[in-house]
Specification:
The chain has one helix at 22-43. With 47 residues, it is mainly alpha-helical. The chain has a domain at 20-47. It starts with 21 loop residues before the first helix and ends with a helix.
């Protein structure tokens, strides 16, 4: 049984425009960003 689209009881995550595993995608992006920053700092001799 599915809920109507405007039902306030509907799971808010089901209506997101990105995949259900959004938390893992955000974590992966943060890890990649941190690695790129570390590599850049080492390359320029600032670390």
């Amino acid at each position: 049984m599915s809920l109507p689209p405007n039902d306030p009881k509907q799971d808010w995550r089901a209506s997101l425009p990105f995949p259900a595993h959004w938390l893992w995608y955000i974590a992966a992006k943060l890890i990649v960003l941190a690695l790129v920053t570390l590599i850049a700092l080492k390359y320029y001799g600032l670390l």
